[in-house]
Design a protein that fits this description.
Layout (H helix, E strand, L loop, with lengths): L2 E2 L2 H21 L5 E7 L3 H17 L2 E7 L5 H13 L5 E4 L9 H7 L11 H9 L7 H11 L9 E5 L6 H10 L3 E5 L6 H5 L4 E4 L17 E4 L3 E3 L2 E3 L4 H5 L4 E2 L6 H19 L3
Parallel strand pairs: 1-11, 2-3, 2-4, 5-6, 5-7, 7-8, 8-11
Antiparallel strand pairs: 9-10
Length: 281
C-alpha cells in the first residue's frame, strides 16, 4: 500500500518558512507585495483568488486585488499591468486565468516583467527553464518537484513519465525532471501503447484532466505517482488517477484534493518572496 504524499502538510511547512523570510524582509523595511488581477466573474476564479489572498495574509504578504468587469477592454488590463510593473513596491504580479473571451491571454501575460511574473508563465522564464538558467518557475511544476523530493527517493537516474504536454504543467515539469537528471518521457493523446510507458515509470506525473484515467494496471510497483488532475465526478472531486487501485501498487501517491493543489499556492508565495529578496542582493 502506497504512502500518501501530504501536500497540505508540506505546503504548511513551506508557508511557515516563508513567514519567517517575510518577517526578515520587514526588518529591512521591505513589505512583500503580490498584485492579483481578475477580469470577469468566473466563479472558480473567484474562489482561487480568495484562496491566494488568504494564503498571502497567512504568510504576512500584502496582497493588492484588482477586479475588472468582463466588459472592460483588454487595454485596461494592459494599463494596469504596466502600472504595477512600474511600481517598485510590487514584487509579484498574477493575472488569474482564464480571462474573458476576446482577451489575448498570451499578450497580456507577456507584458508582465519576467522578474515579477509570480506564476512563472512568461516566455522568458519558460525559455530560461529550458536552458537550465535561473528563472521564475511555474508554480505547479515547482510544487510537484518538492512533493517528489519530500519522499526522500532520488530523482537522478530514474525513469520519469509525464502524461500531458501543456505549457503550464506537462512541459515545464518534464524540463524540471530532466534538470534533476531523470530520464524523461512525455506522453499525450497521440502516444501509442501508453501502458507500456507508464509501467516503466519510477515517477509518474499525470496532468490530462480526465477523471480516474490511470488505474493500478498501468502503474509500476513502488512508483511515485503525482496526480495533478482536479475533476468533478458524481459531485465529488477526483484526480486523473484511480486512487484506490493505484494506491495498492504505488510506493507513494498524492491524494486529490490535498496533494498538488496546496503546493501550487505555496510556490506562488515563494516566487513572490524570492522576487522581494532579490532586491537585497
Amino acid at each position: 500500500m502506497a504512502k500518501i504524499i501530504d501536500g497540505k502538510a508540506l505546503s504548511q511547512q513551506l508557508k511557515d518558512e516563508l513567514k519567517a523570510r517575510v518577517k526578515a524582509l520587514a526588518g529591512k523595511g521591505k513589505t512583500v507585495i503580490l498584485a492579483v488581477i481578475m477580469a470577469g466573474d468566473n466563479p472558480a476564479s473567484a474562489v482561487y483568488v480568495r484562496n491566494k489572498i488568504a494564503a498571502c495574509a497567512e504568510a504576512g504578504i500584502k496582497s493588492l486585488s484588482y477586479h475588472l468587469d468582463a466588459n472592460e477592454p483588454e487595454s485596461k488590463v494592459a494599463e494596469l499591468i504596466n502600472a504595477l510593473n512600474d511600481d517598485k513596491n510590487v514584487d509579484g504580479i498574477l493575472v488569474q486565468l482564464p480571462l474573458p473571451k476576446g482577451m489575448d491571454e498570451g499578450r497580456l501575460l507577456s507584458l508582465i516583467k519576467p522578474e515579477k511574473d509570480a506564476d512563472g508563465f512568461h516566455a522568458l522564464n519558460a525559455g530560461n527553464l529550458f536552458l537550465g538558467q535561473p528563472c521564475v518557475v511555474a508554480c505547479t511544476p515547482a510544487g510537484i518537484i518538492k512533493l517528489i523530493k519530500s519522499t526522500g527517493m532520488p530523482i537522478a537516474g530514474k525513469n520519469a513519465v509525464v502524461i500531458g504536454r501543456s505549457n503550464i504543467v506537462g512541459k515545464p515539469v518534464a524540463m524540471l525532471l530532466l534538470n534533476e537528471n531523470a530520464t524523461v518521457t512525455i506522453c499525450h493523446s497521440r502516444t501509442a501503447e501508453l501502458k507500456k510507458h507508464t509501467k516503466n515509470a519510477d515517477i509518474l506525473v499525470v496532468a490530462i484532466g480526465k477523471d480516474r484515467f490511470v488505474d493500478g494496471n498501468m502503474v509500476k510497483k513502488g512508483a511515485i505517482i503525482i496526480d495533478v488532475g482536479m475533476n468533478r465526478s458524481d459531485g465529488k472531486l477526483c484526480g486523473d488517477v484511480d486512487f484506490p487501485s493505484a494506491e495498492k501498487i504505488a510506493g507513494y501517491i498524492t491524494p486529490v484534493p490535498g496533494g498538488v493543489g496546496p503546493m501550487t499556492i505555496a510556490m506562488l508565495l515563494e516566487n513572490t518572496v524570492k522576487s522581494a529578496e532579490r532586491k537585497f542582493k
